[in-house]
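Subject: for your reference before the review

Hello V.,

The reviewers asked for a structural picture of the protein, and I figured it would be easier to keep everything in one thread rather than splitting it across files. Below is the amino acid sequence we used in the manuscript, unchanged from the supplementary table.
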Amino acid sequence: MLEFYQQLAKTLKNSAAVLATVTNTKGSTPREVGAKMFVDADGKTVGTIGGGAGEAKVYQQALQLLKIGKKQFVEIDLSGVLQRETQGVCGGTMQVLLELWSGSQSLNLVNEIINTLTSGYSATIITPFNTDEKPYLIPETNVIASLHNTGLIETLVPPPRLLIIGGGHIAIYLAQIAKIAGFQVIVQDDRPDFATKARFPDASLVLAEPIDSIQEILNKNTNLYVALVTRGYLQDLAALRLLSNYQLPYIGMIGSKKRVNTVYKTLQTEGCSTEFFNQIYAPIGLDIGALTPEEIAVSICAELIKVRRGGTGNFLSRE
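And here is what came back from the structure prediction:
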């Protein structure tokens, strides 16, 4: 979402844009409430509200709204009924709000949103349904219940961060895939030839420093996921000694079961608790039969998404 608003800010510096936001869904739909897309004055789109005929309808309406400027709702029927214009087959319906964003007022709001997302704090966007009212930002995340009846309430939460410890082959592909999946990526490796911006262009921060350098990151980031893809168990030990002092949503460690057990036994002798070991996903990743560094990176990122979103990891075709 941060990148989306950064793109919107860049657009608004030069022209107007129509922001399309899913405000309500019923049944099975391709996107959730809050999903966004914008259309600029040249007809270029950023983001998606689900693709297909439904998004095409919204796109055409957005082009018209660029001319008339009046906020409006678009109903998308995905029930598969043949006479419906969109002829979607997801089985549900979506309501999409279209609104024109232009000028300094809109740009200032987008910059406020960007600053919130990059600061580590949370806030709330209120988008009134009334056609005469503009969206606005409030610092609170708990809003009065009556507002839910008059507008769309969206909580802004900073994107999760992924700290990759180790800068080898798997780390290169994991950084790329995790960035696409919505993580802000940090890479640490004590080898200067491995921890470089050239090897990790998608990372927001690359640390060519000893493992102790992650201490400040651990202190500042509550929504921090950690993937240990190091070159050996000695590096794992050094990292886990630090990580054992923090409550994190995810710690994953690469390696065979023998390597994992060796690390655990050493840490047990140093006083690490069983509760801490139970927090660790090791060996790391979902079992998809991955062999290559690229495939292993996909496996790891799949597990990250599973933990973040609360998925099961099962075959959807068998549920």
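For the response letter, the relevant points are probably these. The chain has nine helices and 14 strands. The chain has a mean pLDDT of 92.

Happy to draft the paragraph if you're swamped.

O.
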